[in-house]
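Side project, low priority. Logging it here so it doesn't get lost.
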Amino acid sequence: MGANAKAGKLNLAVLISGGGSNLQAIIDACKDSDFPAKVQMVISNTPGAQGLTRAKNAGIPAITIDHKNYDTRQDFEEALTDALSGHDIDLICLAGFMRILTPGFIAQWPRKIINTHPSLLPKFGGEGMYGMRVHQAVLDSGEQYSGSTIHYVIPEVDKGEIIIQKQVDIHSDDTAETLAKRVLASEHIAYPEAIKQIALKSGF
């Protein structure tokens, strides 16, 4: 630890909606005693998400805040804020979190929310570009490469500052499904690297 490093580690909240494979990559990275971050809590907006089981297996506090139980996005986000405020969170990691956050929520966490996107932004980003739609659009465009991007979250979807990208070659016989698997594998590498980069820049 350098002379200017802070005591402890960067405290993470990971927000998920589904399987949580990126969450698992982050959990696995945090098992290294030298990794400068730790997962303090996991929040899912989907009851029964597999990622909740991953958190439980790792001994990480995990809760469900089902967006369907709230009349407005603001009400849902107020519940998120209440949950997060109970922990000393330094960075919010969106890892397959399938909700677009409002500018009001984002403003509470300036440069403290990051997200992953399954393309080499700024290409194939923006509202409506998610999941298999992205990969099919990449293939339809005739691109030679795709990949993953970890970026800061700002009100404009997928427009935040890029932290790290991982390039993936496109094969001539690729389908959206086969490309998705390789891009996801690149996210599993990129996400922990991005967190480590942020932590070290923050003095952890």
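Brief comment: The domain at 10-118+148-165+187-201 is CATH 3.40.50.170 (Rossmann fold).
Revisit when time allows.
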